[in-house]
Fold these 2 entries.
Entry 1:
Amino acid sequence: MTADPQRMAIRTRQLMKHYGAQIAVAGIDLEIPSGQLVGLLGPNGAGKSTTIKMLIGMLRPTFGSAEVGGHDVVRDPLAVKKIVGYVSETGAVFESLTGWEYLNLVASLYHIEESEASARIDRFCQFFDLTPIDLREKKLGAYSKGMRQKVVITAALLHNPEIVFFDEPLNGLDANAALMLKTLITSLAREGKTIVYCSHVLDVVERMVERVVIVHQGRILEDGTVQQILERSGERSLEQAFNKLTSTQNLLQRAEDFARALAQ
């Protein structure tokens, strides 16, 4: 299934977030059609995570508006939370619970019946190669970073959300698990889910997404397909275009110069 331009999954108008005098998001106008896989990129502190947290109802905008799945994020945040999934870059969980307890807690929050929740959790754990012992006997605090990330991703997808936000989802995953997750994400998009994917691994983004939105200093700098951005920037890779748009210097040259200085 391709994106449906007639139905906007996400729409923002002059979306802003201020923390006193500090401006985290400076006015973002964005429309994402239902079923599109979008890469949301930017350097550290660009406003990506803040934007996502406003879109899922975790943060209240200072100014502007946002609709997710047709629901206003300020007026109807619970309706938004019912239809979105969110994988945060921190991978935060309740460390005193087992993976099984945590995922059942999440399922209960979404009012998934116990038998259905168990079946869904088992399917995800088989997919991610989490053993019954890991899931039912180990506390999350004893999990490796990769195991914990698998549980966080499962929790985000357990209620079959329409719209999913991934913020650095490959953190801690080994090569095989990362490949499976990337394939799962692109497959979900083909099935009609709207995906917003944030990552600093730009070569992965370049291969996965249909559209790239580059944010810097709380504003959108670029918006288009990878090919369109390469053509407008005159660069040969998304990584080089990103550097050109968001940095005041050639970072590749800086690294080469630094390496030569170390060798002297």
Entry 2:
Amino acid sequence: MNHPKKEKNIGKPRILVAPLDWGLGHATRCIPVVRELLVQGCEVFLASEGRQSDLLQTEFPQITVLPLKGYNIEYAKSALGLFRNIIVQIPKILQSIRFENKWLNKIADDFQFDAIISDNRYGLYHPGICSIFITHQLTIKSPIGKWTEKIIQKLNYKYINRFSECWIPDNEGPENLAGELSHPITKPGIPVYYIGPLSRFTNNTTADKTLAIKENHLLIVLSGPEPQRSILENKIIGEISNYNGTATVVRGLPGNQTLIPSTNMIKFYNHLSSVDLYHEMKKAEFVVSRSGYSTIMDIIALQKKSILIPTPGQTEQEYLADYCIKKQVALCFKQQLFSLEKALQQSKQFDYKFAVDSSGTNLKKAIHSLLEKI
């Protein structure tokens, strides 16, 4: 393993930040974490590969990204096949956890990290370094019954308890975004801190906050692992060809060289930087996307009316979709039954509510507290 050593700056805490490679959401919600670390005087290193690495390198070209293999979880074409696929891949996931832990132990001395912030990567803990685990899923939903959720939670906590602290990107009180997922009856044995929603658009001082909403303009953001990303993309393209308005489609493919031709009415992008996506989101009348947790945190930060489509069979997104409708945060539809025309008709009558605080104050406090400890 030949990582180039970099001389450490005296007085600058050196922090490693590493997101899971399950879609782009873990990487995007690390963006405000990295920004705040830089504001508070840290030297940051990132660890990732593939699309996540491309996204983070675009966002932070000045930061070194260490190549670290992802879990490479494979999806299924059907909802029924997804859970079976995950079960079959458990040995591969456990192998990835062991690999990343060995990887960290090998490079820790060379880079002299003062702290590690792992977004859902279970192997990135170190006995001699303050190790933070970020997750919004202390309860992991199971399609085969509540009894299995307790077993999954026990295994989840077994790994989380190897870290120094657990940070939850949600609010602690009733005005929260993840419901049972982030507010279980029993919590891990290590200190747990609610750091508030993490949006890349929180306190985005480089963006123009005066952008006006353009009537009948849609922003469609595709994301997540294949093949479901492409399945939804094909469905959306078929639907939007009959749309009597304008739209921007962000395909969620950073680093991809294959382009879909744009027209006067519909613009296609493989990926947009946070600032460009902010502009597109601000001017959209409605945002159409997956019901991934990072997307929900983004739409709350900008208080955007949205239409969300959970990935079929992904129990977390299905739960969040139901929870969003209950809290009146977003309108949600199943992929199989999705009709853009019907969704837009219903969304114009839906009473959207955005009461959740996403100011980023708790994140500032959490990082300040971490730096005091190290």
